[in-house]
Task: inverse folding
């Protein structure tokens, strides 16, 4: 990620869904900010809160959210 970051203003890392918390934590270790993607009628409020907590504990700034299948 560091190498490609030298060539671009922004690098977007797409990771598995939040229920794979270890993957989310790994991505957070190299990310500066995050865009939270949720799916209507699928992503529960508790899952969303947990992902926000993971971001917060990792010092990752959440810059926005996407609601899929609205």
Result:
């Amino acid at each position: 990620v560091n190498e490609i970051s030298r060539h671009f203003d922004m690098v977007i890392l797409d990771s598995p869904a939040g229920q794979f918390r270890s993957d989310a934590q790994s991505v957070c270790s190299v990310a500066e900010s995050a865009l939270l993607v949720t799916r209507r009628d699928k992503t529960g409020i508790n899952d969303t809160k947990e992902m926000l907590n993971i971001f917060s504990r990792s010092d990752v700034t959440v810059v926005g959210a996407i609601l899929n299948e609205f």
Remarks:
- The longest strand covers residues 61-68.
- The two ends are 32 Å apart (CA to CA).
- The beta strands are 33-39, 61-68.
- Residues 31 and 57 are 13 Å apart (CA to CA).
